[in-house]
Design a protein that fits this description.
The protein has 286 residues and is mainly α. Helices cover 74% and strands 0% of the residues.
Length: 286
């Protein structure tokens, strides 16, 4: 008995040490990942227009760069444009992708596998390859330099991603749940809205956040199809802070980068519980 207790005690100690070392490793990784953010913060608070100096700490501390960002640049318009594109893209992409993903997950129809393979092929090619064709198509419809045209491009791009992401999640939901609901007299609409969609909240939230991040940071289409500072998105606006000045203002650029990243960080933290949750709230009891 004594030897068994000692063995169990040694195993607990080993597991505790392994857990501590693993936590220390991940903490170090987090600190390494935060180094660029920390450096950007220091540059944004510096009164010297330079990225490289003798010391990492600014010689002159100031909040003037943040004041310049909101007083000398139209960042409010950039935020509004990006927010409009994000909301429209998320809503339309999920509206299209969620029903389609459920249909591809549950139904077996002629041409199903062919369509899925074609969607993968369409999503496999870099978007730059189709830039010229999309531009000619949008110009013929009068959608160049309009938010509607950009929304159509984003929705077409992200609907495929959302469809595959949601389909993978729907595939993990046991069909037995729906069969049991039908036995209890539930209709197809009741099964979808009262059983399937509540279970799919984590995947829906993650998909929405991924679409949001893509649109928020997208640059190529934004600068190609939209001209004029009034139509700038945040990504295009950030580039203009350096491109429109002879020497560039790195502290203002760093301040803008941090301000632009803040909403994404807040949304990510708020949706974290959905990202770590699964089907534990709605499994089949055995």
């Amino acid at each position: 008995m004594t030897s068994i207790k000692n063995y169990r005690k040694k195993m607990r100690i080993k597991k505790g040490i392994s857990s501590v070392l693993l936590n220390i490793f991940f903490i170090m990784i987090c600190f390494l990942a935060l180094i660029p953010v920390f450096y950007s913060l220091l540059v944004s608070l510096s009164g010297n227009n330079s990225l490289v100096s003798d010391s990492i700490w600014p010689k002159e501390w100031t909040f003037e760069n943040y004041i310049k960002l909101f007083t000398e640049h139209d960042i409010g318009t950039w935020f509004g444009n990006s927010l409009l594109l994000v909301v429209a893209t998320v809503v339309f992409s999920l509206t299209i992708a969620v029903p389609a993903a459920y249909a591809f997950s549950r139904m077996r129809f002629h041409g199903r596998n062919f369509v899925l393979r074609q969607l993968i092929i369409l999503n496999a090619f870099p978007s730059v390859l189709s830039m010229f064709a999309i531009y000619k198509l949008m110009r013929s419809m009068g959608l160049v330099n309009t938010k509607t045209g950009l929304i159509i491009i984003y929705v077409g791009t992200m609907s495929i991603f959302a469809l595959w992401n949601m389909k993978g999640y729907f595939d993990t939901i046991p069909v037995a749940i729906e069969e049991a609901a039908r036995v209890d007299g539930a209709s197809q609409n009741q099964i979808i809205w009262k059983i399937i969609m509540p279970l799919a909240k984590p995947a829906t939230a993650v998909t929405a956040v991924m679409i949001l991040i893509y649109v928020w940071n997208e640059y190529i289409y934004a600068v190609t199809f939209m001209t004029g500072e009034d139509n700038f998105t945040l990504a295009a606006g950030l580039y203009s802070l350096q491109a429109s000045e002879t020497s560039g203002n790195w502290p203002v650029f760093a301040a803008a980068s941090l301000v632009v990243s803040l909403p994404i960080l807040i949304i990510f933290l708020l949706s974290q519980k959905y990202m770590v949750s699964g089907l534990s709230s709605g499994g089949v009891k055995k």
